[in-house]
Write a structure and sequence with these properties.
6-stranded parallel β-sheet, alpha/beta, 8-stranded mixed β-sheet, 2 domains, Rossmann fold, homodimer
Chain lengths: 510, 510
């Protein structure tokens, strides 16, 4: 077992020893007592991932009418080689995530260094000390076969383990607030029984003090408003009983900007859990619908993006219409319909499937193959064809490669023996794909390219001048625009330079 | 052949004779000359249906800076027994459609009686006199099998006949503005060749004066803002060539409220035709998605309407989310995806289908069967069960029964030998279904009912008191709420009265 945790900056942190754990428990106890004296409530955030670490700062940053912090926050992260480094990094006041949002380093510095009411730890003992645990354990769906999301499932092993830890440590009146996106039914059918079992083992009478479990899902949007997307945005919540709902409402009202974004309370955790996965399924379906229209538009000389703008004028009824693209990436739209579909049978024992939602995931997961079809309309045999893919993250101007559709594109191009180079200014390493160097030099990336795929709309790519791109390739490459990144005039310039231009959803009257 | 046209009010109008036609042509000629002297342009509206008759008044109502009418409008309607009556009715200043919009009778009176710049005729000769023809011929999709929209097609016979009539009569520089929702490709592949053929027959050199054909679809919403939905709303347009686009822009700018709702110009009629059917396909898909979630919600005790409201807080990204219901009716969402799918193959010779759009139509068309499932969860055998359906129109507070989902509900209830009574305060006759009397007396409708289906959200139904409904049935009927028409407290009252209550998308925690 590796006993080192390697931070992204190369620093190596040794995993903590038993002696350090004893010391840490003393520190936790003393900090907590000190903070309680100041009248603060104590919160733990379980899991310092993408959501948890920022949520922890938002909780720590909350103040009362006098401007005094309401909570002291213990961030908890398991001491694994993959993640332990986050703890010393955070405790230096540095965010463990990189972001284009300037508020991220500010809020970490403010809470850790200035206010000193946020600190990270690996010790489970911390849960004995707190009034609220916010659960931000990551939970993914497993899709065992490409394009067959109906076979997808949710492995709750680690999540259940995390919940059991809570049951073994928390005070009976501690609120467990699940923020993780979970399969509907999870609070009632997974969390509650585990906590009840552990409470009972500990001699706690669950008929007198039933576990307090609430659910309120985040709607975090990575990017320039990362922190605000947690704090200043609409929230939905519920709880397994009235007291849970009341405590949850009180906590969220203290922490979030509920004046501008009033909370929505639902009757039951089943409802709030369903709400999250349904809203992302709605989005996924919305995108999936665009592919068939993109194909149609391409063939009849219609620019579907202009049609989309025409339709979206109808605000409130038609302006959610999304655009066709290379495909769908990220952590939500790719998995949430699967969580819901799996829960239907696995947690509720119901028959049937969420057919449109699952079908949409399949359409979206296989969408990058359409870009390959477009390339093959011009270059039938891709063997030894040099293809440069510009952009491997799943979102514009971000370095997040989770479930990026560029991965599918690259893999299937290689299946046809194309020679693929990839470029992304924001991505250092691409952990999801083997043996692929992400280049940062455009000249090197484009040199020799017979096909240039504009896969992601990073600003850097939108600004590229056609004559420069063509010069860097040293030929007359086929230009493929995956989501309307190139304007009509840019396309005209490429054509003037002798390049063929194609695009997803971009038909052109000849 | 019947030579009488029967108006809805019972008045019989004899169809016009040849002698009357000669006289009519003289009238048309003299009116037109007189109006030209006033500096007005002359417009014909072809087809005085739901859209055409009101569009004609909107055109007639348009004024220049001095407040003078810009156009004289000839409304044209074929002298069929089914529709001829509209002509004398309109020429008396009376709208041939009933509407809750007060502006409808006003605008008809203003244009026909006061301004005297709108008159209806049946004579094709009128097309020789005009500068613009607005085509509002009705065009439907035929779906030969229930739940198999993929087999649907569009019978263009009457539409082509109408266009041919224009080609035989119009001046070469007359603008043909197609407002009918048509399969994409229709202007280019159907209208243009017919006009070119007829022009050529008439000795017009189409290389010098190519036909002027534009497309701009309406987004009419029947109801309280019927006129405004034509005049004060976003419009998309295009034309088959530059001159058509220019003339169309000028015409629409004169007629519509383009200051508040600027026009959207697209590159080609293919694009504007696609835009219309895509926007309705988007809507249809959006509704279809709700069914599987409604089923899920019902089974896990979740009220999907509350979830929907929670999701719709996210304005601009999630607020288009529609609600589950009995099903989808009306003239647009039920046919437009079929027009598009058919056009793909029939007009463009392309392979493939618009799979999600067509699937959505099928889900929506068969959606009323889910309400029957809900009933059968309580009453397994429907034979001889008395079911009262409240509402047979396809929209709230309207009497329009076109493609109403209540029809499917009634037919499939009868298939199971249920005894069905139907009630609707707005519907006099229900032409789409055989041997069904639409009752207007609630007592008569509800008497003996073992099941009461709230199918449509007419205000009258929303106001009903549970004790009155129960009393009128004389029993303890099963109450079925098809789209959240009953509040939680109303439902509680029904339950207190001993009724079971079920609803589409309405799970209730027991």
């Amino acid at each position: 077992m590796q006993n080192i945790s390697l931070a992204p900056d190369g620093t190596k942190y040794p995993l903590p020893t038993d002696a350090e754990a004893i010391e840490e428990r003393k520190i936790l106890k003393s900090i907590t007592e000190e903070q309680r004296k100041k009248g603060r409530k104590i919160v733990a955030v379980q899991g310092l991932g993408f959501v948890g670490c920022v949520m922890a700062t938002v909780v720590a940053d909350a103040v009362d009418e006098k401007g005094e912090p309401i909570y002291y926050v213990h961030g908890h992260q398991r001491p694994s080689p993959r993640s332990f480094w986050k703890i010393p990094v955070i405790n230096n006041g540095i965010p463990p995530v990189s972001s284009s949002d300037e508020e991220v380093p500010e809020i970490f510095h403010r809470c850790v260094v200035e206010k000193q009411n946020f600190r990270a730890t690996w010790e489970d003992y911390v849960y004995e000390l707190v009034d609220v645990v916010v659960v931000d354990i990551q939970l993914d769906a497993t899709k065992p076969a490409f394009g067959e999301a109906e076979k997808g499932f949710c492995d709750l092993y680690a999540f259940r383990g995390g919940i059991r830890t809570l049951g073994q440590h928390i005070k009976p009146d501690c609120l467990i607030l699940v923020e993780t996106t979970v399969p509907p039914g999870t609070c009632e059918k997974v969390v509650k029984p585990i906590i009840e079992e552990e409470f009972t083992k500990r001699g706690i009478d669950i008929t007198k003090t039933p576990p307090l479990i609430a659910h309120s899902y985040e709607r975090v949007m990575p990017g320039a408003k990362y922190v605000a997307s947690i704090r200043d945005f609409w929230r939905v919540f519920s709880g397994v009983n009235q007291k849970s709902r009341d405590l949850c409402r009180e906590f969220l009202s203290n922490v979030l900007n509920v004046k501008k974004y009033p909370l929505t309370e639902l009757d039951h955790t089943n409802a709030s859990e369903l709400s999250k996965v349904m809203e992302n399924s709605y989005r996924a379906t919305n995108i999936a619908l665009t592919l068939e229209w993109a194909r149609f538009a391409e063939q009849i000389g219609v620019d579907l993006y202009k049609v989309r703008e025409a339709i979206r004028k109808r605000e409130g009824t038609h302006d959610n219409l999304l655009r066709p693209s290379l495909g769908v990436g990220g952590y939500c739209l790719t998995k949430d319909p699967v969580l819901a579909n799996w829960a239907m049978n696995a947690l509720f024992g119901l028959e049937g499937t969420l057919d449109m939602a699952i079908r949409s995931v399949n359409i979206n997961d296989t969408m990058p193959l359409h870009t390959i079809e477009i390339i093959k309309q011009v270059i039938e045999n891709l063997k030894e064809t040099q293809v440069t893919v510009l952009g491997v993250s799943y979102l514009e101007n971000l370095g997040d490669t989770r479930h990026s559709p560029s991965k599918t594109l690259v893999e299937f191009l290689r299946k046809e023996f194309a020679l693929v180079k990839v470029h992304d200014p924001y991505v250092e390493v691409w952990p999801e794909i083997d043996e692929t160097v992400v280049l940062h030099d455009l000249g090197e990336s484009l040199s020799g390219a017979q096909v240039v795929v504009f896969a992601v709309g990073h600003d850097e790519y939108r600004k590229l001048k056609p004559e420069d791109v063509v010069a860097m390739t040293g030929g007359k490459p086929l230009i493929v625009d995956c989501s309307n990144f190139l304007s009509d005039s840019i396309i005209a310039q490429y054509r003037k330079l002798g390049c063929e231009v194609r695009g997803v959803g971009k038909g052109h009257i000849k």
